[in-house]
Design brief:
The complex is a heterodimer of chains A (378) and B (165).
Chain A lengths: L6 H7 L4 H14 L5 H12 L3 E7 L5 H6 L5 H10 E6 L7 H14 L5 E5 L5 H4 L3 E2 L2 E2 H9 L4 E5 H5 L25 E4 L6 H14 L12 H4 L3 H4 L3 H5 L10 H5 L63 H7 L9 H15 L11 E2 L6 H4 L4
Parallel strand pairs in A: 1-2, 1-3, 3-6, 6-7
Antiparallel strand pairs in A: 4-5
Chain B lengths: L10 H17 L12 E8 L2 E7 L4 E6 L14 E6 L2 E10 L3 E9 L8 H15 L5 H8 L4 H5 L10
Antiparallel strand pairs in B: 1-2, 2-3, 3-6, 4-5, 5-6
Classes of the chains: A alpha/beta (378), B alpha+beta (165).
C-alpha cells in the first residue's frame, strides 16, 4: 500500500471529476444524517487523510455481506468505495492468493499496529478446537484473534459476526460464536442484518474515515445513526396497523390494498434496522413494500425467534426495547407517571430527524418519493 | 381532559376519537392491546393552519396532525411521508386515512404502548412528549437522555435529575 495515498488521489487517478467527488461527499453526509456543514469536513478528510488499511476476514458465512457492500447504490460508491479504504486483505475480492495473500495478515498488523481496521464477515466455530472453519491451514478463530490483537477497531459485518446467525441456530453443532465473545478488548461495531444494507455499510466506513473514531453505538454495539428505530416506527404501512387494517391471508383484499402484515408474521415491530427509511437497491424497495413481512434478520438469534409466518405474540419483546435502552431496568414493570414523563421525552427525541438540513418552509411539501435514497433516516 | 389547556373542542378531534374507538374493536384481543388504556386526545392546538396534538390508544401513542378546515388532503396518499418543522426540530409524518375522519398525518412515538400503570400515566407521557415537541431542544438534557442508563444510575435516581415536571 503506498503510504501517502488518499482517497481523493485514488479517485482522480481513476478519472473521477472533482464535481462528482463533491457530490459523493454531500450524499454521504446526508446518508449519515449530517447537515451540509459536514460536506466540507468529509471532503477534507478524504483529500488529506491517508486511507485506512482494512483487513476483511471471512469465517463461517455466505458472503452476502460482501455482495451487499459491492452493490452500494451510489454510482461512485459502486465503483470506488473499495478504494476509500485500503482493502489489503479480503479472501473473496483480492487478486493475490496462497502464501502471498496470507503474508498480508502478518504484515499489516506489524506495519500499522493500532491503525488498521479489522472487518469480520462471519464467525468462528469453537467446537473441536475450531476445526470446522480452516483458512490458510489454520483454524479461523486463531487467525481472528491474532489479527484483532493490534487492530484499532473491529467491524462485525452482518448477523453472523454480530449475533451468530443460522450456523449458531439451535442446536449449533459447531458452536459458531459471535465475534464479540472471542475479541473482548477492542471496540466492536456491530452492523447486523442478513445482509446489512449497502448504504449502511459504506456509511459506517465513511464515518470512521472522516471523523477518525467509532460512530456512537447503542447499548448492544450498533451504530445509533442506522439502528435507533424499528422497521415498524417508519414503515409506510404503519397507518394500516394503527387503524387495525391487516392482511389476513396471502393475496386477500387487504394484501392488495397494502395493509399491515403483522398477522402474517411481520417482525417489523421488534426489529431495529433502517430498511423502512434507507430501503434497498438504491432506495427502490424493501421486503414489506414488496408484500412480505420483515423476518427480523438484524435481530439477535432471528432463526430461533419463532417461525417467519407466525405473528409476534411476545408483548414484552414488542416495542419495549425501544425504551429498554433509555430507561434501563424499569421497562419490565409497570410504567408509572414519573417514568412516563421520561418515556414521552425520549420518544419525541427518537422520532426527530437527526439531519440538520435547512429547509426554508414551515413544512416540506416535497414528499418522500426520493426519501429512500436521500438518507433522511435517523 | 385532552382539551384542558383552553382549546375549544373541535369537531375533527371528536371524529378522530370516534374513528379510533371503532378501530379499537378490531384490535381488541391482539397481544399488544392494553385494555387498561382508552382512546384519548391530548393537547390539540392550532399549528401552521392545521391542528397538532397527541393521540393515546390502547395500542399506540402518536403525534397527530389534522388538516385545517379549508385544507383538502384527500390526494395525499396513505403511507406517503411529509416533513414538519416544530420548535424542537423536524419530524416526518406519515399520511393515514381512517373511517369518518378521512385523511390525517401521524408520527409514531410508542407502539405498542408501554405497560402504563393507568390512563393518567399515559397522559403524562403524552404531555411531556408535546412539551418537548413544542420547546426548542435542550442539547444538555438530550445528551443525558440519549445515554443508556446503567442499573446503578437508575437505582441512584439519576434518571429523575432535573427532569421537567
Amino acid at each position: 500500500m503506498p503510504e501517502t495515498e488518499t482517497f481523493y488521489e485514488v479517485l482522480r487517478a481513476q478519472g473521477i471529476t472533482r464535481r462528482s467527488f463533491l457530490k459523493f461527499c454531500s450524499l454521504t453526509a446526508a446518508a449519515l444524517g449530517l447537515g451540509p456543514d459536514y460536506v466540507g469536513q468529509i471532503a477534507y478528510a478524504m483529500e488529506t487523510k491517508p486511507r485506512i488499511p482494512v483487513l476483511w476476514m471471512h469465517g463461517l458465512e455466505c458472503t452476502c455481506c460482501s455482495e451487499s457492500f459491492i452493490r452500494s447504490g451510489h454510482p461512485l460508491a459502486k465503483d470506488v468505495i473499495l478504494k476509500m479504504i485500503s482493502l489489503d486483505y479480503d479472501d473473496t475480492l483480492m487478486a493475490s492468493a496462497g502464501y502471498q495473500a496470507e503474508a498480508i495478515l502478518d504484515e499489516i498488523p506489524r506495519k500499522y499496529p493500532g491503525e488498521y481496521i479489522l472487518a469480520v464477515e462471519g464467525n468462528p466455530p469453537l467446537n473441536e478446537d475450531g476445526m470446522y472453519c480452516i483458512v490458510g491451514g489454520k483454524p479461523f478463530v486463531e487467525k481472528l484473534k491474532s489479527v484483532a490483537a493490534n487492530a484499532k477497531a473491529v467491524i462485525a459485518w452482518g448477523a453472523c459476526a454480530s449475533w451468530g446467525c443460522v450456523q449458531a441456530a439451535h442446536p449449533n453443532p459447531t458452536a459458531a460464536t459471535p465475534i464479540d465473545k472471542v475479541i473482548t478488548n477492542k471496540p466492536i461495531i456491530k452492523v447486523p442484518g442478513c445482509p446489512p444494507i449497502a448504504e449502511v455499510m459504506t456509511g459506517v466506513i465513511t464515518y470512521m474515515l472522516t471523523f477518525g473514531r467509532v460512530p456512537e453505538l447503542d447499548g448492544r454495539g450498533r451504530p445509533l445513526m442506522f439502528y435507533s428505530q424499528r422497521i415498524h416506527d417508519k414503515c409506510y404501512r404503519r397507518p394500516h396497523f394503527d387503524a387495525g387494517e391487516y392482511v389476513e391471508s396471502w393475496d386477500d383484499q387487504g394484501a392488495r390494498e397494502g395493509y399491515c402484515l403483522y398477522k402474517m408474521g411481520c417482525k417489523g415491530p421488534t426489529t431495529y434496522n433502517a430498511c423502512s427509511t434507507v430501503r434497498w437497491n438504491g432506495g427502490v424497495s424493501f421486503p414489506i413494500q414488496s408484500g412480505h413481512g420483515c423476518i427480523g434478520c438484524s435481530e439477535e438469534g432471528f432463526w430461533d425467534n419463532g417461525p417467519f409466518y407466525s405473528r409476534l405474540s411476545d408483548v414484552h419483546g414488542f416495542g419495549i426495547e425501544a425504551n429498554a435502552d433509555k430507561i434501563g431496568g424499569v421497562v419490565a414493570g409497570v410504567v408509572g407517571a414519573g417514568v412516563a414523563v421520561h418515556a414521552g421525552v425520549s420518544a419525541v427525541m427518537r422520532a426527530r430527524n437527526k439531519s440538520h438540513k435547512g429547509d426554508a418552509s414551515g413544512s416540506d411539501q416535497s414528499t418522500g418519493k426520493d426519501k429512500g435514497h436521500q438518507g433522511d433516516q435517523q | 381532559m385532552g382539551l384542558d389547556r383552553g382549546e375549544r373542542p373541535l369537531l375533527a378531534t371528536q371524529r378522530l376519537v370516534d374513528a379510533f374507538q371503532r378501530a379499537a374493536e378490531r384490535q381488541r384481543g391482539l397481544p399488544f392491546f392494553r385494555s387498561a388504556l382508552a382512546v384519548e386526545i391530548v393537547g390539540f392546538r392550532p399549528w401552521q393552519g392545521c391542528q397538532a396534538g397527541a393521540l393515546i390508544t390502547p395500542w399506540f401513542m402518536n403525534l397527530i396532525i389534522l388538516p385545517g378546515p379549508d385544507m383538502d388532503w384527500s390526494a395525499f396518499p396513505v403511507g406517503e411521508q411529509q416533513r414538519w418543522h416544530f420548535p424542537s426540530g423536524s419530524y416526518e409524518f406519515t399520511g393515514g386515512y381512517i373511517g369518518n375522519l378521512g385523511p390525517y398525518q401521524s408520527c409514531a412515538l410508542l407502539s405498542p404502548a408501554p405497560d402504563f400503570a393507568d390512563q393518567a400515566a399515559a397522559r403524562a407521557a403524552a404531555w411531556s412528549a408535546l412539551d418537548s415537541l413544542f420547546t426548542p431542544a435542550d442539547p444538555d438534557l438530550e445528551r443525558r437522555l440519549a445515554r443508556p442508563l446503567s442499573r446503578r444510575g437508575f437505582l441512584g435516581g439519576k434518571w429523575t435529575g432535573d427532569r421537567r415536571p
